[in-house]
Amino acid sequence: MDLQRLVVDESVSTLFPPGVLLDELNDTPIETTVFDESVDRLSPDQGVVTFDYHEAFLDSGWVHCVLAGVDQFPFERFQDESTPLTNSTGIHGDAIGETVAGYVLAFARRLHQHIGNQQRRDWSQPDWDEAWTVDGETACVVGLGSLGRGIVDRLTGLGLDVVGVRRTPTPEPGVEEVYTPDDLLEAVSEARFVVLAVPLTDRTRGMVDGETFAAMDDDAYVINVGRGGVVDQAALVTALEDDLIAGAALDVFETEPLPDASPLWGMDDVIVSPHCGAFTRDYCNHVAALVDENVSRIRDGDDLVNRVV
Ligand code: NAD
Predict the structure, then answer these.
(1) Whose CA is nearest to atom 37 of ligand 1?
(2) For labeling, which of 73, 85, 202, 227 is most exposed (least CB within 10 Å)?
(3) Is residue 187 a part of any domain in this protein?
(4) CB of 91 sitting under 6 A from ligand 1
(5) Are residues 181 and 292 in the same domain?
(6) 309 in a domain, yes or no?
(7) Is 11 in the same domain as 74?
(8) Are residues 203 and 169 in the same domain?
């Protein structure tokens, strides 16, 4: 591929201003601009950096998504058009790891309740047996990729024992036992926290359902930082209403933004965050490093990193 130009789609502004990425790509040896749909016609000598998918991108020579999850991209179309698609897997472990540690500590130390009470100027101390410490508790991390790694590091650092689930049960440092998805119910049964960090695929869609919540302890929490579709959200609401589980911290949802009418907004032991668990002011630098690397590889005729299609 003779790559001459790189265009940054406005949709990246969900994560950072396009101009900041252009500044970061200053040393890239090709022209870089913001994509202007009304003027620009894409061709195979151009690459695209984007958050959203647009059909027009199939005419380019290469598409890089600034997310790790590319479930909204039609892989078959990319294959048919021989347009390579790369993603940003590998850059989110630290931020997501800290977000998950934050949820875990909020539930144990009841911080989410204090914040809620503060909004109402309500000086309510927790009951004597409400707050607890996480040392020695167990977490089950479902998905041991780059997110899973960042989560395992933070949770073991807080003194939790960690088990994990992934497709092949190969050992993982810091993870006491690795289960396969077939043994998900056994894996979650002893965990105080079940943390979901898998991509949305045909196999993971709805993998956490009513049966999973029934297998969890009634004092356990589910944390979803993967994709909303991994959880059967109606079954989650029922499990929370029926006290099958103690609570949930959710960064991702079946429908985003989470609709006003969702009961999840108003539940006491539910933390809702607006799909921002990976946000960090360094996000843009990390994307730029990946893009730079692949620009060099294309020019040298080497294989792309993080190639999905
Ligand atoms: P990754 O490719 O490094 O890791 C994904 C892991 O999930 C792999 O180890 C894979 O083997 C495992 N996996 C796949 N299917 C599985 C299954 N059926 N059961 C158990 N494990 C399975 O990706 P990553 O960077 O860790 O990101 C994972 C996903 O998290 C992304 O695809 C994206 O959807 C989501 N994500 C969300 C945010 C956020 O802002 N909340 C940020 C980054 C990524």
Answers:
(1) 226
(2) 202
(3) yes
(4) no
(5) no
(6) no
(7) yes
(8) yes
Alpha-carbon distances of 86 from 64, 194, 291, rounded to whole Å: 5, 29, 9
Residues 56 and 119 in one domain: no
Question: Number of structural domains, the chain?
Answer: 2
The separation between the first and the last C-alpha atoms of the chain, rounded to the nearest angstrom, is 16
Is residue 86 located within the same domain as residue 99? Answer: no
Residues 252 and 207 reside in one and the same domain = yes
* CATH code assigned at 98: 3.40.50.720
Atom of ligand 1 nearest to the CA of 145: 4
64 is catalytic: no
Distance from the CA of 94 to the center of ligand 1, in angstroms? 14
Evaluate: CB of 169 within 6 angstroms of ligand 1: no
For the whole prediction, is pTM greater than 0.80? Answer: yes
Residue of 176, 256, 299, 307 marked active site = 256
- Tell me the three state secondary structure of residue 34: strand
Q: Is residue 306 a part of any domain in this protein?
A: no
Range of the domain at 119: 93-272
Give CA angle at 32 (21, 35), nearest 5°: 85
pLDDT in tens, 160-169: 999 999 999 9
What's the DSSP call for residue 177? -
- Please tell me whether residue 175 adopts helix, strand or coil conformation: coil
pLDDT digits (tens, 9 = 90+) for 112-151: 999 999 999 999 999 999 999 999 999 999 999 999 999 9
Q: Which of 75, 198, 207 to mutate to test the pocket of ligand 1 (most atoms within 8 A of CB)?
A: 198
CA distances from 233 to 194, 205, 264, 293 (A): 15, 11, 9, 38
Q: Is the minimum distance from the CB of 69 to ligand 1 under 6 angstroms?
A: yes
- The structure tokens 């302890």 sit at 217
List the residue whose alpha carbon is closest to atom 30 of ligand 1. Answer: 226
What CA–CA distances, in Å, run from 119 to 115, 116, 126, 190, 264? 7, 5, 16, 35, 18
